[in-house]
Amino acid sequence: MRKIKCCFTSLFLSALLFSGCSVSKFIPEGHYWLDDVKIESDNREVKPSQMNAYVRQTPNAKWFSLFKLPLAIYSASGRDSTKWMNRFLRKIGEAPRIYDPELSEETRQQIEQAVQNMGYMGARVELSEHKKNDRLKARYRIFTGEPYIVEHIAYDINDYKIDDYMLADSAHTLLHPGMRFDVNQLDAERQRITRYLQDHGYYRFNKDFITYQADTMLNTRKVDLTMQLMPYQRKKEDEPTPHRQYVVREVNYLIDVEESDPASILPQDYDSLTYKGLNLYFNKKPFLRPSVLADNTFLRPGRQYRSRDVQNTYSALGRLNILKYSNIRFREEVREDSAYLDAFITLSRNKNKSLAFEIEGTNSAGDLGAAASVAYTHRNLFRGSETFTAKVRGAYEAITGLEGYANNNYMEYAVETGLSFPEFMFPFLSSDFKRRIRATSEVTAKFNWQVRPEFERTVASAGWSYRWTRRQKANHRFDVLDVNYIYMPYRSETFKDYLDVMDEINPLLRYSYEDLMIVRMGYTYTYNSAGAAALKTSRRNSYSIRFNIEEAGNLLYVFSKMVHGHPQNGEAFQMANINFAQYVKADFDYAKNFMIDERNSLVFHVGLGLAYPYGNSKSLPFEKLYFSGGANSVRGWSVRSLGPGGYRGSDNSLDYVNHTGDMKLDLNLEYRTHLFWKLNGAAFIDAGNVWNIRNRENQPEGLFRFNRFYKQLAVAYGLGIRFDLDFLILRFDSGMKAINPMYTGKDRFPIISPKFSRDFAFHFAVGYPF
């Protein structure tokens, strides 16, 4: 085995070394291969990384910022392009980048201009070319010089209304004496003022109406800056006029009405009605209730035009699943000193109903089976874009390796229903509040019936929750009520005997197969600094935070204690003759994405979790316990096979119940790189484990203690491949154990003496792990 590994390593290194020599055959005579590009700066305020965006020609890509393997693959092809192997290698590889002096000079000029725009008016950039054989390394050296400083700011605003607005908003200005004469900052101030004025009726205003005049003092680097407001001119030949403030006169909805010109809409051509100042034009009958449109419209007749109202209306209408698209256009009318806007909002409906079928094959630890489901969706149940979903699923699996049972068949039947309202459904709330919070209300109900050789289990649940988003970055979820009912009507005699035997060894196992009720309330907050870009790989540094807290059983405990006074059989209170869980649980996740360049990034993640059972519960419900290992945790272990602490476990198939805990810690570091086509690669190091808060008789090494928990951290390393299909990411990760707290001696450090059959774990998942 060791000889094979050495052989592959030698072959890999040989390929890399050979590629350096074989590149030459693809370099035209008199040209050079661009081997490296480097930017250097003599000023800490001008970072070389800021100038990477201006580089017009980059060297060949490196995997993990180390190996130019795509180039090596391309170089392994021969000159004969008619051979299919050569064509294949060239397709998946990357051709050598031939140095272009014109692009390099363009890069030098753009970097120089960018630095000058930052206030270093005398900045210069030098380009040097270091040639060796047929290779070339380009170096850009930035010499900034001293910056120009704004000493005085004046305003030339000949419009008293706009002058008053700017004065009222002067606290938010981006300009101040003593700042660098930064062109980017000046442009940002123009955009800020433009947005502010567009939110105060100035429909036709844009940033080009704001200009700057800069005067420099002789032999100094001090600048006198004057901001000027240009009068309104729609065309150059038009007479300059003052900027007008527009008032929204009409808001018209065109429902299933296809018209390219708003002026062609005539009331007599369509059915119409007026509701709360909104004019609705439609054929036959509008597919949305007028009250729904009013609640999702921020444009109001008689109110000054605000660009923010337009965006908020687009955003609110975009939340209605029944709508395929919406479009807002305006028609202007100027009367003497007054200017009006008539808004026309076109709505096109989506499919009202849909039906989906799904057939799947299952494989649970080698037990093969099949499942089928049918799902029905209605996107406009009560003409308010309420989305109703219903799903029915059936599954069958042939279980092997069981002895002492009447049959070896596993069957599962499930029914799921949900109803989503695009508003905050709660009594006594005003329409303005509902419009501001933009929440979605959800009601769900699920029923699951499992029939196994060992037992029969019924799981019923119902939930009521709210979801809302703020500025496309922060997401909130509030579970007002979530009820889960677990009922075990049948347990075979063989299985009962097994639980009796295991009761002394592992009481948690019996607890996992008892009737239980969970009535919980929870809140989840998620924030991603990349906003909507988080759906794809972000091209800039970003971070995400997730926090969750939930509690269960407190109200039931107070009610039961008031009614019964004492727990049933001196152990626990019951509701409808079933024990209910009582606990509190909190989770925190933080992930930071560092972009190294456009192809490489480094991601750090930390996850913490703590749960505490009390009152009516001696232990958490099994589904609420933490586990470690798996595709999103310490990837050197399979799911539910690590911990708690240094607990080693047994080979029993049900021992996964023991590998759980009340606390969890995950630490992950992952280097991500783009390989070629839609393939991305990753190298990772994971660490973590789970622990118990209370001591379990059979797991003393699983109890959390401050003086030893860091010694019980499991560590793994590995590589991964990801298929980025735009709409989803398929992930394959292979991990190896590095430090195993479940063993002592030399087996504790498998990184020194790895054993593939013992230390390797493979994972398949959808999406990134964090």
UniProtKB/TrEMBL annotation:
First and last residue of the signal peptide: 1-24
Any one of the GO CC terms: outer membrane
Name this polypeptide is given: Bacterial surface antigen (D15) domain-containing protein
Keyword Membrane: yes
Transmembrane spans: none
UniProt keyword list: Cell outer membrane, Membrane, Signal, Transmembrane
Limits of the Bacterial surface antigen (D15) domain: 581-767
Organism: Phocaeicola coprophilus
Keyword Metal-binding: no
Main location: membrane
InterPro entries, sorted: Bac_surfAg_D15, D15-like
Places the protein is found: Membrane
